[in-house]
Amino acid sequence: MRRLPPVLIDDGCSRELLSLIRTILAACKEISFRVGQGALSGVLGSTLDENIQGETQKKLDVLSNQLLKDILLESGYVKAIASEEEDYTVAGNPDAEYIVAFDPLDGSSNTDINSLVGTIFSIMKAPHGSDPADQTIFMQPGHQQVAAGYVLYGPCTTLALTIGKGTRIFTLDKTHGSFMLTEEFAKIPEDTKEFAINASNQRHWQPAMQNYVNDLLAGDTGPRGKNFNMRWIAAMVGDVHRVLCRGGLFTYPADTKDPNKPFKLRLLYEANPMAMLVEQAGGIAHTGEQRILDIDPQEIHQRVPVILGSKNEVEACLGYHK
Ligand code: AHG
Ligand code: MN
Ligand code: MN
């Protein structure tokens, strides 16, 4: 089994990018340890604070954010960072080449029930000569990402990573602290009988998604002519990992539940990195109107609809949106 650094070097990863990825992973190993300690290290439960998006912060959201932020900024490998838990971008080393957007802990509602959580990250190049304090350096479409990944803190800790040469899966060997390559090229099956959606929002969805899901639920006597299974982990990182492992369709569509928040998932540190991982594994990632990786971001915490996964199933879903 191969360790992460030689695998990435063989893929043509620059020394600087490799160092940055290893820095992110150093923070993730620490988060993995703290998540694994659970109640023993006093990290469960909520803080009294909200982030800029009006969401109550869990203690683990704050801790994970602090670890990533401190380790990245101290490393000197980043020009700036953007995080779900930071109101604005944070300036780093003006001479660094890369910027990183991250969701320090995805699936925060799972922290207190010993269920799946993870860290999602997106790496882009900063425009040449740009100011590290300039928020607009993050306003790049996702197809310009140079690397994307997530670390899933589950029964084992796994890393899905792409630098644009396919999506690879590594497993953290906790005895040595090394991420070992355990799947060379993740390939999402083109067909599936599994979908993931928070069905409690059904009455708030737009007609296209209502019709699509109704046809899935109609099973083998409906227009799709086959029975579908449903899964919902309430952590995108867990649902996308299942899609990478065995296929499926994952969606968090537009809904009218809260008129101020028509979409749930954030473009820069949820949708974009997952879209790159999924496309690099042969899947599709779309909003219903356009490819996620082609969206021109307007703001750091921008939200978008997400439909991703197995190619033929995503195309079937998009057929309802035409
Ligand atoms: P976060 O914990 O980073 O705020 O993200 C949670 C997101 C996503 O991971 C997940 O798919 C979705 O919210 C869960 O939404 P529901 O609460 O509607 O299940
Ligand atoms: Mn999240
Ligand atoms: Mn989060």
UniProtKB/TrEMBL annotation:
NCBIfam families (alphabetical): PRK09293.1-3, PRK09293.1-4
TM regions (residue ranges): none
Fructose-1-6-bisphosphatase class I N-terminal domain location: 15-184
Pathway: Carbohydrate biosynthesis
EC top class named in words: hydrolase
Pfam family, one: FBPase
Location relative to the cell: Cytoplasm
Alphabetized UniProt keyword annotations: Carbohydrate metabolism, Cytoplasm, Hydrolase, Magnesium, Metal-binding
Organism annotation: Pseudoalteromonas caenipelagi
Domain (Fructose-1-6-bisphosphatase class 1 C-terminal): residue spans on this chain: 188-320
The keyword rRNA-binding appears for this protein: no
The protein's required cofactors: Mg(2+)
Entry keyword annotation includes Cytoplasm: yes
Sequence positions that bind substrate: D106, G107, S108, S109, N198, K264
Cofactor binding mode and count: Binds 2 magnesium ions per subunit.
Binding residue positions for Mg(2+) 2: D103, D106, E270
Catalytic activities: beta-D-fructose 1,6-bisphosphate + H2O = beta-D-fructose 6-phosphate + phosphate
GO BP term (any one): fructose metabolic process
Subunit structure as annotated in this protein's UniProt entry: Homotetramer.
HAMAP family, per database record: FBPase_class1
Protein family according to the UniProt entry: Belongs to the FBPase class 1 family.
Superkingdom of origin: Bacteria
Binding-site list for Mg(2+) 1: E84, D103, L105
Protein name: Fructose-1,6-bisphosphatase class 1
Gene3D superfamilies in the cross-refs: 3.40.190.80, Fructose-1,6-Bisphosphatase, subunit A, domain 1 (3.30.540.10)
